[in-house]
Amino acid sequence: MRAIVQREFESYFNTMVGYIFVAICMLVCGVFFTSTNIIGGSASFVSVVSSVSYALILITPILTMRSFAEERKSKSDQLLLTAPVSIPGIVLGKYLSAMLVLFITLGATLVFPISLALFGEPFWSEILLGYIGMALLGGTFIAIGLFVSSITENQLTACIATLGLLFFLWLSDSLIPNLTNETLSTILRALSLYGQFSAFTKGVLNVATIVYFLSVTFLFLFFAAKAVERRRWSKN
What we know:
The protein has 236 residues and is an all-alpha fold. Helices cover 80% and strands 0% of the residues.
């Protein structure tokens, strides 16, 4: 699995994908940090955290779209599927490589709260919770993107489908006011990633929220593994 992690991680930076991911996150952080914390004089980091969550919706599909779709289209996935690595190991290896890119990106954004500390007294507990939330949210987005990539053969299709699914899961609770069915409203509320993530922006550490994100991540990684496994058996 280590070889898969290394190969996938290097591929992100052998192309422009990794650099684009980091650059867009840094740009979004920089814009909101400048407008809110420098110009606005606020010591709160909430607006920056919220802005990154929206940026992740837009750029995570770019990070994950080629994970399985490109290999499936070029038929190079046969080499991977016949390698002495378990299907969960393949999926987990690709997931961890994408998470490394995410952690590098979040690490780079630490320059903003550190800069804030040089000129004021930031709320460190709020910042810590924000980074925990961004890591959990990003990990969930990546798992969803890997699943979508595992069931498609076209990178563009994977990107668009992932983007649409992320937006739906992010904004699903916004549909509730228009519904009269209580059961459906409950389901949409449970699906809402924004509803769960908002706890971190409010400075609330909720164990149930952490379990929620980890559970959704595991579920989509499981779905991805099943999709890849079905493809392996279909080739036999």
